[in-house]
Specification:
The complex is a heterodimer of chains A (719) and B (157).
Chain A lengths: L4 H8 L4 E7 L13 E2 L15 E7 L5 E5 L8 H12 L7 E5 L13 H31 L6 E4 L2 E4 L6 E2 L1 H4 L4 E6 L20 H5 L15 E6 L10 E5 L9 E7 L2 E6 L2 H10 L1 E4 L10 H8 L1 E9 L2 H6 L3 E9 L11 E7 L4 E6 L4 H12 L6 E5 L14 H12 L3 E4 L2 H6 L3 E2 L3 E9 L5 E9 L14 E8 L5 E2 L7 H18 L4 H8 L3 H13 L13 E10 L3 E11 L6 E11 L6 H20 L15 H4 L10 E7 L16 H16 L10 H8 L9
Parallel strand pairs in A: 1-9, 4-5, 10-20, 18-19, 21-25, 23-24, 28-29
Antiparallel strand pairs in A: 1-3, 2-9, 3-4, 6-7, 7-8, 10-13, 11-14, 12-13, 15-24, 16-22, 17-18, 17-20, 22-23, 26-27, 27-28
Chain B lengths: L3 E8 L2 E8 L4 H8 L18 E4 L2 E4 L13 E3 L12 H8 L9 H14 L5 H8 L9 H14 L1
Parallel strand pairs in B: 1-5
Antiparallel strand pairs in B: 1-2, 3-4, 3-5
Helix pairs in contact in B: 2-5
The chains are: A alpha+beta (719), B alpha+beta (157).
Chain lengths: 719, 157
């Protein structure tokens, strides 16, 4: 149902000024000359520009309104707020004049997945550069068209005016040629300080959020809509089969429309969600027992099944350097399976529209265009027959990129010939998804010379990508290898990605090394960092956490730890944590977190700070609480309480965040969505070791682990 | 097996006649029959607090609360009843001012629980706030900002 050019232009309001924004991201090749150029072909529909780099659009409508189109979605990271802050200041317009259209595949081009660290840096800052160029373009094209010298024109309050004449503003429709113009920008290029945006704004969804008016997928309703839910075994879906369904007991529930085996699961379709849940509790089904061993020794399986995936770093001669080292230390670290656990469970609303002959799917997603392609494959139809409309997501954290709920809802809707709202139960979210941050085994060996300088390091990471090993420490001889395992659970992208595992191992190991050679862990890091910018950050957290030679506190059970990371492009982060460990109960209390981040310009501090604190709190969950209960057959975690996402009582009373901008010349945005999670983990693990003198080699570090290590576990006293 | 019955629900000061299974969770009657979708489904087990409502001033989990038990004249308050766009409650304003959310999905439950707390204890300490709010989960981890938002209301009013 492609619009004609005339329809499209009419839909934009005829005399609109249309700018296609080509944001040159680091992974994208493109022209190195940046500036306005005519679009190579006429715009028919913005969403059709999937084969180009014109991923975001700004449209000036007649009158004073501006529309922004982006394929990236609203997840809670505040992208809409960032775009609002950037575009209203960049074009000097009021928020009421701006409409942002996000994640509708019929209206927005594919801009890849919305992943927190890159959305603000690439899209948000890309729009800032674009706005500055649009100002210039408008001045210059007005000058050309009307024969007025460009230096006698200026851009003010979203309009072009003649300098010194406050009454004469030019209408965009007078400038418009009816052609779209490409604005090429490089979000990583610097802008001068006077061009920084300075107004910070509060979350633009704020009023809708606090009044309950913001519509997530589950809040939508269409006529004739039915609910659907799954019954699944706890077994991993790739290793089991549905054999029989007995729906005798569900027949008495009048609201139930169908009980059916679809895609290896029992699906119940009902008028009300409570009909569905009642039916799910009564229906009986049998699944074939998995053929695989139930016993799961993760370390053994990962080591046995792993094959070399990538050599991440290979410099110098590690073996020779280790031989010449004054001290060599070899250790193995382990991390657990972790899941996203967004409070909004996977939910989708799918309906076939007889009028347009298209499927409409309302989705909670980080990547609507990928979902569109998955749905098209599932329904065996063309992508042009599918429209995915992204609603604000109730949390995503990497779990809503390629998830299957939308194609499942479409398949069930196709079967039921009715609009379907499919809701995953919390149990489904843990078990059916079986989609986890990988458990990882990391072997790490390093060597230090007599001056305390690290001269060699070797890392083997099993079933992981080993991201995060580079850039932080200056080590001349390194070998880092990533191995891929062969176990049936899906390895998922979860906030912080592979950096989480790698940096837990490296930062714990670095502390052990410092201890072995008798150097203070802060000082040992100062000696070994690759970039001086890190030293500023170390000094900053040391001062703010009040680091001293004795951090044990009055009761002798407190400790301070530090950890560092370089995440994504060029985000440097150092975090120091202060903990108190109760030797009897094993409880670990995080008393204070001090963070120092070298991330360039912080575009909108209010939304950035709440996101960073949230990342730090998520890191506390990773290191102290969260764990999936599983074996070789399946996943048994069913409740949020069992899984252990952080609560209010886990939050440190003080989270101090300091921003720095020393690494680069300044004037760029480097992103910060995921990075704070990572050093939180190592800093707490190191603080625990500082407090009680025990090194823990695996996460999570629980009260039971503490009690066992200290011999205060009264149920297992060793007589 | 159907146990459907006509009942009167008093929600946000208005009476509504509904016809529902007596054991159906209040949550789905609010959402599907009354269109009050601000009250969220997060777990269905009373664990996350996203479905919190006030029933006669007490914080309750509507995903586990049979509708018939709420239909005996009790006053039910949902997020929509706390304040509207032009007339926000102090807590709602403070949540906006302190950026006390990211995705916002848990926020209605947080606001209901905080409202219930301040009704019974207008001057809670930080520890009181943590204790009262501790069974409301926020995966974005906006907890520090939520505490600040509640403390601000306690201090300023």
């Amino acid at each position: 149902m492609k619009m004609t050019r005339r329809q499209f232009l009419a839909s934009l309001g005829g005399a609109s000024l249309i700018f296609a924004i080509d944001i040159l991201a680091e992974n994208r090749t493109g022209s190195s000359s940046f500036g306005p150029v005519p679009l190579e072909r006429e715009p028919e529909c913005i969403a059709d520009y999937t084969d180009t780099d014109y991923t975001n659009w700004i449209v000036f409508d007649p009158g004073e309104n501006v529309r922004v189109f982006t394929g990236r979605t609203e997840l809670g990271q505040g992208l809409k707020t960032v775009i609002t802050a950037v575009v209203t200041q960049g074009l000097e317009i009021e928020p009421e004049q701006l409409t942002i259209i996000q994640g509708d595949t019929d209206q927005c081009p594919d801009d890849g997945p919305t992943i927190g660290s890159a959305a603000c840096r690439v899209v948000g800052w890309g729009f800032w550069h674009a706005c500055l160029k649009i100002q210039n373009y408008l001045v210059n094209s007005t000058s050309t068209k009307f024969g007025i010298a460009s230096d006698s024109l200026e851009f003010k309050s979203g309009k072009i005016k003649i300098k010194g004449d406050d009454k004469t503003f030019l209408n965009y429709s007078e400038i418009s040629t009816g052609e779209a113009v490409v604005i090429r920008v490089n979000p990583d290029s610097t802008v001068s300080t006077k061009q920084y945006i300075d107004k910070k704004i509060l979350n633009v969804n704020g009023i809708d959020i606090v009044t309950g008016a913001l519509k997530y997928v589950n809040d939508l309703k269409i006529p004739g809509m039915l609910y659907a839910g799954f019954k699944t075994p706890p077994y991993h879906k790739s290793i089991t089969l549905l054999e029989t369904i007995n729906d005798e007991k569900t027949k008495e529930i009048e609201g139930i429309k169908a009980v059916e085996g679809i895609g290896g699961r029992v699906v119940i379709i009902g008028e009300r969600y409570s009909d569905v849940t009642k039916g799910l509790s009564l229906v009986e089904a049998e699944w074939r027992t998995p053929t695989r061993a139930k016993e799961l020794n993760i370390e053994e399986e990962l080591r046995a099944s792993s094959h070399l995936q990538e050599v991440k770093e290979d410099e110098g001669d590690v073996e020779t350097a280790l031989k010449s080292s004054a001290v060599v230390l070899s250790e193995t670290y382990y991390t657990q399976y972790i899941t996203h656990a967004a409070i909004e469970t996977d939910t989708s609303l799918a309906a076939y529209d007889n009028n347009s002959g298209k499927w409409n799917v309302w989705a909670s997603t980080q990547w609507p265009h990928k979902q569109r392609s998955q749905i098209a494959t599932e329904l065996k139809t063309n992508e042009t027959n599918i429209r995915v409309i992204a609603q604000p997501a109730g949390g995503a954290f990497g779990g809503k990129i390629g998830n299957t709920v939308n194609s499942e809802a479409a398949a069930i809707s196709n079967f039921a010939k009715a609009p379907i709202k499919l809701i995953y139960s919390r149990k489904d979210q843990f078990q059916l998804r079986s989609h986890f941050k990988a458990a990882v085994v990391i072997d790490i060996t390093s060597g230090v010379d007599s001056n305390g300088k690290m001269i060699a390091r070797k890392i083997d990471s099993y079933d992981d990508l080993a991201e995060g090993s580079t850039f932080v420490y200056d080590i001349p001889n390194v070998l880092t290898r990533a191995f891929k395992g062969n176990i049936p659970y899906h390895r998922a992208v979860v906030r912080g990605t592979s950096y989480v595992q790698t940096c837990f191992a490296i930062e714990s190991h670095v502390d052990m090394m410092a201890n072995r050679i008798g150097l203070d862990p802060f000082e040992f890091r100062r000696i070994n960092v690759q970039y001086p910018a890190f030293v500023n950050l170390i000094d900053s957290v040391a001062e703010n956490i009040e680091y001293s030679d004795n951090n044990k506190g009055q009761e002798g059970n407190e400790g301070i730890g530090i950890a560092m990371v370089k995440h994504g492009g060029a985000q440097l982060g150092v975090i120091s944590a202060k903990v108190r460990v109760d030797r009897v109960t094993g409880q670990i209390e995080v008393k204070k977190i001090c963070a120092a981040f070298d991330v360039g310009i912080v575009v909108n501090e209010p939304t950035a700070v709440v996101g960073i604190r949230g990342g730090i709190i998520m890191g506390i969950g990773y290191v102290l609480r969260e764990k999936i209960d599983m074996d070789g057959w399946g996943t048994y975690t069913e409740y949020l309480g069992e899984y252990g996402i952080p609560r209010f009582s886990d939050v440190p009373p003080i989270i101090d965040i300091k921003f720095h901008d020393n690494l680069q010349p300044g004037g760029t945005v480097r992103g910060l969505g995921e990075m704070p999670v990572v050093p939180t983990i190592g800093s707490i693990a190191n603080a625990i070791c500082d407090a009680i003198g025990v090194r823990f080699y695996s996460t999570p570090i629980t009260p039971e682990d503490i009690k066992k290590a200290l011999g205060t576990d009264i149920e297992n006293l060793n007589f | 097996m159907s146990d459907k019955k006509s009942m009167i629900l008093n929600v946000n000061g208005n009476n509504h006649q509904i016809f529902a299974d007596m054991n159906e969770p209040l949550l789905w009657v609010l959402r599907d029959d009354l269109g009050l979708t601000g009250t969220k489904f997060g777990c269905g087990k009373g664990e996350c607090g996203a479905c919190s409502v006030l029933i006669d001033g007490d914080v309750q989990r509507s995903c586990r609360f049979p509708v018939a038990y709420a239909a005996a004249g009790q006053e039910i308050i949902t997020i929509e009843g706390l304040g509207t766009a032009g007339n926000l409650s102090k807590l709602q304003k403070s949540f906006i001012k302190h950026s006390a959310f990211c995705c916002g999905f848990c926020t209605p439950g947080m606001l209901i629980t905080a409202t219930g707390l301040l009704k019974t204890n207008p001057y809670p300490s930080r520890d009181d706030i943590i204790l009262a709010m501790n069974n409301n989960l926020c995966r974005c981890g906006s907890y520090s900002n939520i505490i600040e938002a509640i403390e601000f209301v306690v201090k300023e009013y």
